[in-house]
Design brief:
Blueprint (H helix, E strand, L loop, with lengths): L6 H10 L2 H7 L2 E2 L4 H7 L4 H5 L3 H4 L12 H4 L1 H14 L3 E3 L7 H4 L8 H19 L7 E6 L22 H18 L3 E7 L2 H18 L5 E5 L14 H8 L6 E6 L3 H14 L3 E6 L16 H13 L5 E2 L7 H11 L8 H12 L1
Parallel strand pairs: 1-8, 2-3, 3-4, 4-5, 5-6, 6-7, 7-8
């Protein structure tokens, strides 16, 4: 049975409605990588387990289960959020990329997934409330990751019809996640790093189901990832096909993140800027991976910020930020680099968005 959302979710829903107007006025700033920052703390297995009795003798190593830290090391997650807000982020993501029952089953912690989402949303909510001002409100994006399983692609090269997850399992896991994120205070929902459109459709189905049951609608942001120079996501779609497959979800923002870095991502963002009748977002990795780098990626804040400045000069984006390898220094540099540019304009399309969400 769906639980009734408390006052915090209704309040955050109202706040999230400021985003369309803000997106028309300036390029908004998302935060950067959570995992990259957590790595800087060099946390031990004991840190990940915390003082929870049920985790002291857990049979599986928990180091690397970053979503668990919202419960076992909340001060670390709060500190990271505040560093991004101090750097200029308008929107910060909850530390819930892998906080579904499906993803947490790898650690045998599926039963804790809801608690992880609720705790993470509350931490992000508190950080945003601390930094918000009337002139610069801050927003919590409830992060909904793709899960480590794909509904479209076989995990067995000898059996093309095999699947390791089905649509209903994904829908159920996503519904639980979304419900907890909104209860914890999310202002918008972000379905991100999509490599399989069918997984994303399950997430969107669950989100729509939650909106219907709760009698409220939060702004929705959708972000896919192009996995190679072919310009396609892993399940085979071009960015145009990807957009047309998911535009029915009535997102406020649609874009790309992670993967190739800004240089190789630009042609695909340019394509979305031409065809999307909603705001366009882009938060790339700090270039391509380099295990010899301190952050695991090559690009310095100066490099990444100048690349995204070019996106802004060309009128391609409404929101920018960083993904893997980016830090508060990257976000501060990005915010400074794009501050004097106008956001991508699509005045006629705002009316189309308003009509969509009011249906």
């Amino acid at each position: 049975m769906t639980q009734k959302t408390d006052h915090s979710s209704i309040s955050s829903y109202t706040k999230g409605q400021q985003l369309p107007e803000l997106l028309k006025k300036r390029i908004l700033i998302l935060d950067g990588a959570m995992g990259t920052m957590i790595q800087q703390y060099k946390l031990s297995e004991k840190d990940f387990r915390g003082d929870l009795p049920e985790l002291l003798n857990h049979p599986i190593d928990l180091k690397g289960n970053n979503e668990l830290l919202a419960i076992t090391k909340p001060e670390v997650i709060s500190e990271i959020h505040e560093q991004y807000l101090a750097a200029g982020s308008d929107i910060i993501e909850t530390n819930t990329f892998g906080a579904t029952t499906i993803a947490q089953e790898d650690y045998k912690l599926a039963h804790m997934a809801r608690a992880m989402n609720l705790a993470s949303a509350k931490l992000a909510r508190a950080a945003c409330d601390k930094y918000s001002t009337p002139e610069k409100p801050r927003f919590v994006a409830g992060a909904v990751g793709p899960t480590p399983k794909t509904a479209s692609i076989s995990p067995d090269v000898n059996d093309p019809g095999a699947r390791n997850v089905d649509f209903e399992s994904l829908r159920k896991a996503y519904y639980e996640q979304v419900e907890a994120l909104v209860e914890g205070g999310a202002d918008l929902l972000l379905v991100e790093t999509i490599f399989d459109t069918l997984n994303a459709k399950a997430a969107i189905f669950a989100i729509d189901e939650y909106f219907e049951n709760s009698k409220q609608r939060l702004p929705l942001m959708i972000s896919g990832t192009v996995t190679d120079a072919s310009g396609r996501i892993l399940s085979g779609q071009t960015v145009e096909a990807f957009w047309n497959s998911l535009r029915h979800a009535k997102p406020l923002m649609f874009g790309l993140n992670c993967a190739l870095g800004a240089t190789l991502m630009k042609p695909y963002i340019a394509e979305l800027a031409k065809i999307c009748d909603v705001a366009v977002s882009c938060y790339p990795n700090a270039g391509l991976p380099n295990p010899m780098s301190d952050t695991g990626f090559d690009e310095t804040p100066d490099i990444t910020s100048h690349l995204l400045e070019d996106f802004s000069k060309d009128g391609l984006v409404n929101l920018v930020g960083g993904c893997c390898g980016t830090t508060p220094a990257h976000i501060a540099a990005i915010a400074k680099a794009v501050q004097n540019y106008q956001p991508r304009q699509w005045a006629a399309k705002w009316n189309a968005y308003k009509e969509l969400v009011s249906e």
